[in-house]
Amino acid sequence: MIKKQITVKDIAKKLNLHHTTVSKALRNHPDISNNTKELVLRTAKELDYRPNIIAKSFKNCRSNTIGVIVPSIGNDFFASVISGIEEVAYQKDFSIIVCQSNEDFNREIININSLISNLIAGLIVCISQTTQNGDHFKAVKKRNIPLVFFDRVFEKVKASRVVVDDYTGACIATEHLISRGYRKIAHFAGPMEISVSRNRCQGYIDTLIKHGIPIDKNIIIYGGFQEEDGIRAFQKLIEQKNIPDAIFTVNDLVAIGAYLEIEKNGLRIPDDIAIAGFGNNKLSSFINPPLTTVKQSPYDIGKLSAEIILEQILGKSDPEQIRQEIITPELIIRKST
Amino acid sequence: MIKKQITVKDIAKKLNLHHTTVSKALRNHPDISNNTKELVLRTAKELDYRPNIIAKSFKNCRSNTIGVIVPSIGNDFFASVISGIEEVAYQKDFSIIVCQSNEDFNREIININSLISNLIAGLIVCISQTTQNGDHFKAVKKRNIPLVFFDRVFEKVKASRVVVDDYTGACIATEHLISRGYRKIAHFAGPMEISVSRNRCQGYIDTLIKHGIPIDKNIIIYGGFQEEDGIRAFQKLIEQKNIPDAIFTVNDLVAIGAYLEIEKNGLRIPDDIAIAGFGNNKLSSFINPPLTTVKQSPYDIGKLSAEIILEQILGKSDPEQIRQEIITPELIIRKST
DNA sequence: ATGAAAGCGCTAACAT
DNA sequence: ATGTTAGCGCTTTCAT
């Protein structure tokens, strides 16, 4: 059923050469005469020869593939990170296998096992929301497979990481709201198991304290990362009859959810209530009014993660030495604040 | 540098068995006694043995991987399709390699070459917007690699396909607008090289004709698939001072772009102007007012594509017999019409 | 400059 | 029930 691929042997047979000669010729080995090289290259093209990189990986005990695990590829942020990784990987003739954990710990384990079996040369991960422990990463470390975390990291696993300075990002967003004269500022927070959410929440709290604004726990509403969570959070404020001047949300999707519920209640943004998000989601500039948010540069995060892992893979840096890269976020002021 | 993996031989050595016995035991071959099987399984676990599936692929001349090429994984629609493919593939112990063409013909060629070298068992593709010819698919067909197109198909290549009935989808959306009493209905169309755009446009035209509404070419505005295109399209109508009662857009992102420009001009949806999109993008239910749109079931498209290709891979169906699956779209009526 | 031999991990076919 | 052999395509090392 499976059609035989054209191999070096086929080329060799056709040219009455040995297959190792062909192999060397194809890789431009200095042993081989220019004549022969040319001949081999031409014949390879004629026969539509494709190197069997599986065989190569097999021989090397390592593929030219980088594994990437993200919670969800549909998410704007992760999609951009992946594009960044891809870009750098392609340039070095590496390909990537992208897996989704769907925020499920068990799926993450399955993904890792599958990637290990695929002899990945390196692994780039943003851990799932439900990841309980780091045991599954031990198998990766044990095999000396370079590992890089981005965005969400598992603290207890020793690995390089590329993270956004979420704390500072939250601080500058909150500073901005305060500088605009808002004093009663709510926060729609994310899941507290995730460092990203914790750091953003802490940045918000510390900035209020710094400015002598008392923390009102009633207007810190905890939830997830989706639009629904923004809707629900604002509903809680309504129930409390406790409408703030402004809201800082853990991300842009939550802000978009809040928009809907705010409009539903006949309030205007930013006149009645200002709102600032986080992440610079593509949609944030398209909603009305455009959303003030914090830019994270996901494409750069992806590129940097790929560069770090490739340095380790190609042996240019010591895999034992963990590198920590912190991306500085940037405030984008739009009409919502 | 690369740590040696635990292999069947290591297990064999430890148990004083032959490696082929171990191999059979691991695969639960009837030749092997239960005692030995148990022993082998236990030892494998102890040593943290992982089968080297690269070696297996190498031997079989085929991996257990399905290649997937989409224009962009960040797109809601494609992300869902991919999830659908993944779901079905996982169940059959297949993994997927996702590549993005970024709507670039050359990148599509590079992707295909890389996937072929990876000995993919099958290929699922949505062609890029700039794909000029089908020559790169010949290499796939020649190797008897099952090929399935979804959504956008390359007509000249003989392959199974899963497509949405875009024509009918456009018809029901347009019918709906007419039934609501709108008569001057504009269409923000997509790129005419893409069958999807052509079919949606034709559905719109034919439905107007069917109802005796003359076609006004000035209010059919051509553009791309992004928000920007919706913004630009409505600006053109404004320039023409030719505001319609309603708009049918080629997809939801274009509709969202139109929303912005409509609001900017102080018009209300649906009172001043109604709008219907296509695709049931996640955001379509979150914008204000929620967008009437046509549901495409991308997750099902993915599942179906994967099922078709797996049948061919597993030899349950004749790869020569092309299958055409047409997904019937469904109108979702919301507040924008 | 070219050829020969060996081996990566696994499995299918055959032998004991 | 277990062992032996051979080979998938490629590269590395050594021989001619």
Structural account:
2 copies of one chain form a homodimer. With 337 residues, the first copy, chain A, is an alpha/beta fold. Helix content of chain A is 44%, strand content 15%. Chain A contains 12 helices and 12 strands. A 6-stranded parallel beta sheet of chain A has the order 2-1-3-4-5-11, with helices on both faces. In chain A, strands 7-6-8-9 form a 4-stranded parallel beta sheet, sandwiched between helices. In chain A, helix 7 links the parallel strand 3 and strand 4. In chain A, helix 6 runs parallel beside helix 7. The radius of gyration of chain A is 26 Å and the shape is elongated. Chain A starts with 7 loop residues before the first helix and ends in a 5-residue tail after the last strand. In chain A, 50% of the residues are buried. The interface between A and B is large, with 57 and 57 residues. The first copy, chain A, binds a DNA duplex (16 and 16 nucleotides) through helix 2 and helix 4.
Strand order of the largest sheet of chain A: 2-1-3-4-5-11
List low-pLDDT spans of chain A: none
- Oligomerization state: homodimer
Radius of gyration of chain A from CA coordinates: 26 Å
Mean pLDDT of chain A: 91
Strand portion of chain A, in percent?
5-15%
Question: End-to-end span of chain A in angstroms?
Answer: 64 Å
| Number of helical stretches of at least 4 residues of chain A | 12
Total strand segments of chain A:
12
Give a quick account of the main beta sheet of chain A: strands, pairing sense, barrel closure: 6 strands, parallel
SS-based class of chain A: alpha/beta
Q: Sum up the overall morphology of chain A in one term.
A: elongated
Largest interface: A-B, 57 and 57 residues
Order of helices and strands of chain A: HHHHEHEHEHEEHEHEHEHEEHEE
Question: Percent helix among the residues of chain A?
Answer: 40-55%
